Amino acid sequence: MKELARELSVPLPAEESAGWNDFASLVREHQAMVFSIGYHFLHDVSLAEELAQEVFLQLHRNLKSLKSPSHVKHWLRRVAGHRSIDFSRHRGSMPSVALDDVPEPAAAVVDGDPMLAGKLRKLVASLPPKARMVVILRYQEDLELEEIAAALGMPLGTVKSQLQRALATLREKAARSIGEVYP
Amino acid sequence: MSRFEDDLRTALRRKEPPPGFAERALARAAVERETLLERLLGLFRFPAVRWVCAAALLLMLLLGVRYQQARRARQEGEEARAKVLYALQVTGSKLQLVQQKLRQLEAERETQDSAEEDPATSGRKIL
Question: How confident is the model at residue A4 (pLDDT cuts 50, 70, 90)?
Fold first, then answer.
C-alpha cells in the first residue's frame, strides 16, 4: 500500500508517512535505481558507484526542498540521468574498468539468456549519450515517453525520434553482431 | 510489446549496487552535515590558527580603541567650535546693543545742543 500511495503521490496516513524524508531510508530504497542508471549508462561499476554517491549527496543537500516521496523519485531519476551524461563527457580523462573485467554487481535474478542480456547491454552502451539515456529510462525504469521528456528536459518529439532511431540501430547491430534477428 | 523490447527490458533490469554502498553514502552525507560553525571550531585544534585569531582579535581591539579616540577628539573639536560660534554670536549682539545705545545718546545730545543754541540765534536776529 505504501509503495502504491507513493507512486500515486497520495499522502499516507500520518503514522505511515512520518519520516518519509529520512535520508537513510531513501538511500536504501532508491540505491538500485540510481546505481543502475549509472551502471547501464557508463558500463563501469566504480564510475557508476561514484555517480550514485554524488547523486545521493546532492539529494542530501536538497532534501528539504523535496515535498513528497514521488517527487524524490523523479528528482533522483532526473539528476542521475543528467549526471550520467555529464560523467560520460568527462570519461576520457578518468580511469575506467571495462565491464568484462569486473564481476556483475549483486544482480537480481535475470531471466532469459544472460549472454544475450550482456551483449544487448554492450550494444546499448554504444549508443550516443542522449539516445542511450532515453533507452535506459524507457526499459530500465519503464517510463512513458512524456516522463522521459520531463526527466531529461527534452521535447517529446525529440524523445520519440531518439528512441525510434536507437531501437532501429540496436536491432541492426543485434542482427549483425549477435545474430539475433528481431522482427 | 515485441520480443526485442522484452529482451532489452531484461538486459536493463535494475541491479543492486556493490555491498556497503548505502553505508558509504550515509558516511559521506554525515561528513557534509557537519555545520560551518563546527568546521570553524575544528580549526582551533591548530595552535597557529589560535595565535592568528588572537592576533586578529587584538588588532581589532586596538583599532576599535583608536577609532573611539579619534571619534571623541572630533566630537570635542565640534563642541569647541560650537562654543566659539555661540560666544561670537553673543558678543556680536551685545556690541550691537552698545552701538544702538551710543547712537541714541548721541542723538539726544545733538537735540540738547540745538535747543541750547536756539535763543542766542534768535537774540542776534533781534539785535
Answer: very low
Cell triple for A112: 532469459
Query: A24 at the B interface (CB within 8 A)?
Result: yes
Per-residue pLDDT at A92 exceeds 90: no
pLDDT of residue A19: 66
ipTM confidence: 0.75
Nearest to A48 by CA among A101, A78, A17, A88: A88
Residue A38: CATH number of its domain: 1.20.140.160
Q: Which residue of A has its CA nearest to B28?
A: A57
Do residue A28 and residue B22 have CB atoms under 8 angstroms apart? yes
How far is Cα B122 from Cα B127, in angstroms, rounded to an integer?
9
Contact A171 B11 (CB under 8 A): no
Q: Classify burial at A52, counting beta carbons within 10 Å of its beta carbon; exposed 0-12, middle 13-18, buried 19 or more.
A: buried
Tally of structural domains, chain A: 1
Give pLDDT, residue B121: 59
Q: A96 CB near a chain B CB, below 8 Å?
A: no
Let me know if residue A169 belongs to a domain.
Answer: yes
Query: CA of A182, closest CA in chain B: separation in Å?
Result: 6
Q: Does residue B38 surpass a pLDDT of 90?
A: no
